[in-house]
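Handout, section 4.2: multi-component inputs.
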Amino acid sequence: MTALNATHDPKLRSWVAAANVAGTDFPIQNLPFGRFRTAGSSEAFRIGVAIGDQILDLRATGLIDTDDMNVLMNASVKDRQALRAAISAGLAEGSGQQAAWSKALLAQAQAEMTVPCRIGDYTDFYTGIHHATTIGKLFRPDQPLMPNYKWVPIGYHGRASSIGVSGQVFKRPQGQTKAPDAVAPSFGPSKRLDYELELGFLVGRGNALGEPIAIGDAEDHLFGVTLLNDWSARDLQAWEYQPLGPFLAKNFASTLSPWIVTTEALAPFRAKFERPAEDPQPLPYLDAPSNRASGALDITLEVLLQTAKMRADGVAPVRLTLGNTTEAAYWTAAQLITHHTVNGCNLQPGDLLGSGTLSGPQPDQAGSLMELTLGGKQPVTLPNGEKRTFLEDGDTLVMRGWCEREGAVRIGLGEVAGTVV
Amino acid sequence: MTALNATHDPKLRSWVAAANVAGTDFPIQNLPFGRFRTAGSSEAFRIGVAIGDQILDLRATGLIDTDDMNVLMNASVKDRQALRAAISAGLAEGSGQQAAWSKALLAQAQAEMTVPCRIGDYTDFYTGIHHATTIGKLFRPDQPLMPNYKWVPIGYHGRASSIGVSGQVFKRPQGQTKAPDAVAPSFGPSKRLDYELELGFLVGRGNALGEPIAIGDAEDHLFGVTLLNDWSARDLQAWEYQPLGPFLAKNFASTLSPWIVTTEALAPFRAKFERPAEDPQPLPYLDAPSNRASGALDITLEVLLQTAKMRADGVAPVRLTLGNTTEAAYWTAAQLITHHTVNGCNLQPGDLLGSGTLSGPQPDQAGSLMELTLGGKQPVTLPNGEKRTFLEDGDTLVMRGWCEREGAVRIGLGEVAGTVV
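Output:
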């Protein structure tokens, strides 16, 4: 695990004024990486660091000599930390770099962002135990969780090609569905389109095929974290998923936030990783004192909705739910990395591991409409009187995440927005 | 569908002598693409065409100006056919290119091959109805096939990073397994390691997100076919796969043959695609007269095994099974492409679609040991007296494929071999 160091000092301020404004997602203690270009241009995307309301063009600073985020992600932990320290020093108040680096800034409002790295393979896990329990209850009231759930970090492979960046607009998927009492399936647009609130863990340095990553080393391979909306067509899923899992119900679109908040930036926001005493101890390959001591992430997650009518009326998105990752996830990022490689599978820089839907223990902390509306039976009423069981055309779904703690400066993950049309 | 033309003429002969030898996999009527370099060198891999026992360096002929197979795969059907015609003409007896192109040949025996393209996403389907029925019977004697099987081309996402080329040597995967009567799972090497005999369909030109590929256009997006061994750890799979499908049971390794036999080369080996009259008609989006008329591929598939002892004793691999794709697959490649995109999912050049295990209707045509040994209950006895229920360390599994028809020249897919250690 990354130790706290000078880059986390709450007294640290930047010569970029907006980075010092209380409540910003991007103070100098954060320094997330993304890929940007001037909006409206056809420039190649470059690596940037968010600072306040600006983006620092990292290559222009001379600290790196690549535009390829995956190359940067392949760096050793030591090199990653050295790069972070250098960026922090250069952006700090009183830095001798201010004059030069000022010319390497672009306002975020003038930038176009893209998916933050090339995602070779995308794996989606299922660590949200409250989500798994609530969804499981809808299908199997007597046994909501499968017998393997508390032993195996359940995961499946996802689709990399259809992953987009915040702002993604996609068409409502079509496909086969079958009503329980129907003789045959029918074809048409999904009527039960949902979102899933997830964290996206991005892999840094990978491992060779056949060489598992031990649990004690796993966090060295975690480059950072994004927000992930794993859009889901519940009606397609119900008909297609036996026996090999979700497929067309998921791969029409998935949306990532543009900024990778690094493992280093998250160091002040780690938590003890606790499981109920009655639960089985993980098998030794998934267990390490370091993981128990600080394997959890303490991130607040918020979901908001803006309907087409709200947009037309100039009404801002309204909150659907608010929760926290510490209570939601049954497995840590380190456990996911180790489990994924224990059979010899190779991870590569830029691979994406979804956390699974991070619903809290309370009903109003649910990370999907499927849970919030009890499988579509109980609509949510919005402040303007509109109702939703599932997403309707024109709906924009927004997810935000941030970390706050006594004695630390608040950092944010930014947001991920997406619209179905 | 690609029509027959002069490149299929059985009378066509090549100035590369070995291409005219009866029984070669690579006569001038085949012309498959692969990526090669001189064995032992550290050259970049280049695009080559197999001809007899040689490889034609395609860039050296001046017909292409790229070393990137995915660029070539993105070509239009018209351009693909034009390239094939030009290669065929240049390699034909009496060609004026003979003197120049002779210098662009490398003996296959002196070449190192690699995975034939960059595989962005890998999807594995489950089209082998006899496989699905036999495996299903082991779990559900009363209902071997799920209710969706004859409506939905069942598929799931696989792992691209661990796909290797023929000759791949991999370590036996470790992981969690649980005996039916055990209280808790245990950890260790898989004891039920199996192969799966599949075709790999490689996507040519892709589609934009949100723009499905109609069934009538689907074959235009199929670049060609390889052999695929989808190694499977049956004991890991049984414990992990509920509810989201196979994961670590599959992603430790998958092996492809090095040569992509193109859709154009396969034109003489198409078959009527028939399903039993009592089966449901596919939904309209999966149905097209062209697909019914010639959607099936007529490819003979053979599986062979060489144990470590056989290798030490100088004994060649022995046949385990022999079958044909026409009888094995319930869905065509065109139906897989259309189904995959009907929800808007985007395919990209180089994406791999596995057919699923292609077992024939007879027990001795089974495409996996799980089927051949009735779930490990009935060992196979090899000619030298060794027995196998599942694969043992040192076993090399070889798959071969070829097409033969009256009035056409035999073409081969080459072979895919892999060894577990």
